[in-house]
Amino acid sequence: MVDDLYHLAYVSDARLADPEDGPDPDFVEYSLKKILETARKNNKATEVTGALLYTGEHFAQVLEGPQQAVNHWFQLISQDLRHGNVTPLFYERITERQFDGWSMALCQGEEVPDSLQITGAKPDPDSVEAAALGRSILNSLVAAIRKRQAH
Q1: C-alpha span between 114 and 100 (Å, rounded)
Q2: CA–CA separation, 103 vs 36, rounded Å?
Q3: Are strands 105-108 and 49-54 parallel, antiparallel or unpaired?
Q4: Please, which residues have CB within 8 angstroms of residue 114's CB and are 6 or more apart in sequence?
Q5: What burial class does residue 12 get, using C-beta atoms within 10 Å of its C-beta: 0-12 exposed, 13-18 middle, 19+ buried?
Q6: Strand pairing of 58-66 and 5-14?
Q7: What is this structure's pTM?
Q8: Per-residue confidence of the chain (151 residues) as pLDDT tens digits?
Q9: 6 contacts 94 by C-beta, under 8 angstroms
Q10: In this structure, how many other beta carbons lie within 10 angstroms of the beta carbon of residue 68?
Q11: Are 122 and 11 in contact (CB under 8 A)?
Q12: I want to staple 9 with a disulfide (CB 3.0 to 4.6 A). Which of 82, 89, 107, 119 is the partner?
């Protein structure tokens, strides 16, 4: 057991499109590639693992690792202009990683169940609804990655 192991889940509005022109698929693909490259490099250096969900309108992410590193990356994500309305869902100590070996995995909206609803109205961060959404995101990301690994 690692005493200083935490995980954090959040949702945010994805700001990868020009508000007037809408999303440019090439720009979105480029942006996601850059996010992953940077996250994988930085996370590996700070022993953070996790997964990012991109639905087209929203991001949902679970970060896990040493408390100081998770806090640091969440603070930077909260200030990143590609994220709007960043809403933490849960933050807690854990005894084992769910994304061991993944400095950052990316899942697309079609890889998670339709029942996973991320809407413009985010739950209050301290509410039961926020924790439930966070758990649903965590479970959906773990299932999507395991399904991908099985193929």
Answers
A1: 26
A2: 9
A3: parallel
A4: none
A5: buried
A6: antiparallel
A7: 0.89
A8: 457 999 999 999 999 876 666 668 888 899 999 999 999 999 999 999 999 999 888 999 999 999 999 999 999 999 999 999 999 999 999 999 999 989 999 998 888 876 567 766 788 888 899 999 999 999 999 999 988 888 7
A9: yes
A10: 11
A11: yes
A12: 89
Half-sphere exposure of 88 (CA within 13 A, CB side): 15
Residue pointed to by tokens 């079609």: 110
| Block residue for tokens 């084992």 | 96
CB count in 10 Å sphere of residue 85: 12
Residue length of the chain: 151
| Residue the block writes with tokens 């953070």 | 48
Match 């933490």 to its residue by tokens.
88
